[in-house]
Design a protein that fits this description.
Layout (H helix, E strand, L loop, with lengths): L1 E7 L8 E8 L1 H14 L5 E2 L2 H14 L1 H14 L8 E2 L13 E5 L10 E8 L4 H4 L16 E7 L5 E5 L8 E4 L4 E6 L21 H9 L3 H10 L9 E6 L5 E6 L5 E4 L6 E3 L23 H12 L6 H11 L10 E9 L4 E6 L11 E3 L3
Parallel strand pairs: 2-7
Antiparallel strand pairs: 1-2, 3-4, 5-6, 5-14, 6-15, 7-8, 8-9, 9-10, 10-11, 11-12, 12-13, 15-16, 16-17
Helix pairs in contact: 1-3, 2-3, 7-8
């Protein structure tokens, strides 16, 4: 079953947001996602047949939900699901890569005992052509102007709700019916550069990784094992991920510049993350000064830490902390906070407000639940 409704934005607003709800088998869900992606201009990417065969095998063994959806994609395209020359995933209709700030408040540090994690999603309010230093194409929309909230209720496995800017089979934020929440952020913004080669590889792409976790894991311990056992790639744009569960556990997963994987935890206390590698700067009180290319990553983390240390925080307090680190509506500033999300892992909800344009209020806060 497929249902799509407009939930935020309208004529003249920067963002127009749809909520797409899909239920049934993963094959049917994959067919429906592919049909929507094709409507948005997506087409399958050619891939080396040896790599294509290895990719399908990897998904079949490690992420069967995605493998079944790829079979559904093949049906939507009229292709043999066993062909190896085209990648039938990566339903991307916009470029990827973000700034962002996030703050996890464990149940022990919450006024009502609910674990919550809040995040600002910061991105360019311009077209892809402008970001690459050129002029926008005729009728080209800003890259982040058409996000989706997608709820899937499969016949087997956990229901999920995700927010995506650019990839219908990936996401930037996600939560499942077990209360596992995952979000991605740029990890090393001072050294970030556009990817030179976006050819699909074997394993999880950077935006598929959060979707993989909310579809295959129920808690932080399972997510750690899944991440350490998975094969993943990021096309050179280093990202890290904040993972939190309904049992009060949270961690940040990131890969160092030497390729090693790191799990960063702060015990039973708030966990702040912005856009620098936490394993290189574990002490919020000893961060370096921001430089021209850091986009206030250290200042934003200090702000979140100061607001959360040694005090119990309510949901309203968390939202106020997110507003304190949101991007300014400054014509000279490269980013805008395009949405601001609060996950309540106890209630299994995702609440978010979307950016409608400079000088305009954000949308009303919308609450979604995969249950």
């Amino acid at each position: 079953m497929k249902n799509m409704t407009r939930v935020a934005g309208g004529k003249g607003d920067f963002q127009l947001v749809h909520h797409l709800t899909l239920s049934g088998g993963q094959f049917e869900i994959g067919r429906a996602l592919t049909e929507e992606a094709r409507r948005l201009g997506w087409s399958p990417v050619p891939v080396d047949p040896v790599v294509g065969r290895a990719r399908r095998t990897w998904f079949e063994r490690h992420w069967p939900q995605q493998h079944a959806r790829m079979d559904g994609a093949a049906a939507a395209l009229g292709l043999d699901p066993d062909q190896d020359e085209l990648a039938l995933d990566g339903l991307s209709y916009l470029p990827e890569g973000t700034g962002c700030s996030a703050l996890w408040i464990p149940p022990s540090a919450a006024t009502d005992g609910h674990g919550r994690v809040g995040r600002t999603y910061d991105f360019f309010p311009t077209t892809a052509g402008e970001v690459m230093g050129g002029a926008p194409r005729p009728h080209e929309l800003p890259m982040a102007s058409r996000p989706y909230v997608i709820t899937t209720v499969p016949d087997e496995g956990p229901a999920t709700t995700v927010i995506t800017m650019n990839d219908l089979d990936g996401c930037m934020d996600g939560i499942n019916a077990a209360g596992l929440a995952v979000m991605l952020l740029v990890a090393d913004i001072e050294n970030a550069a556009p990817p030179l080669d976006a050819t699909p590889q074997v394993g999880l792409s950077s935006v598929q990784l959060p979707r993989f976790l909310v579809e295959t894991c129920e808690n932080a311990d399972q997510a750690k094992q899944a991440l350490l056992g998975a094969k993943h790639y990021d096309h050179g744009m280093s990202l890290h991920y904040l993972v939190a569960d309904a049992h009060g556990q949270a961690f940040v997963w990131e890969r160092g510049r030497d390729g090693r994987e790191h799990i960063v935890e702060f015990g039973d206390g708030p966990l702040c993350v912005t856009n620098h590698l936490l394993h290189l700067n574990p002490d919020p009180m000893s961060l370096p000064a921001d430089g021209p290319g850091s986009f206030r990553t250290y200042d934003r983390l200090r702000t979140l830490y100061e607001r959360s240390k040694g005090t119990a925080m309510s949901g309203a307090d968390l939202r106020a902390a997110l507003r304190a680190v949101a991007q300014p509506e400054d014509p000279a500033a490269p980013f805008r906070t395009l949405w601001s999300t609060v996950f309540d892992t106890a209630e299994r909800t995702l609440s978010t407000r979307f950016y409608l344009g400079d000088g305009r209020p954000y949308s009303d806060e919308l609450v979604f639940s995969p249950r």
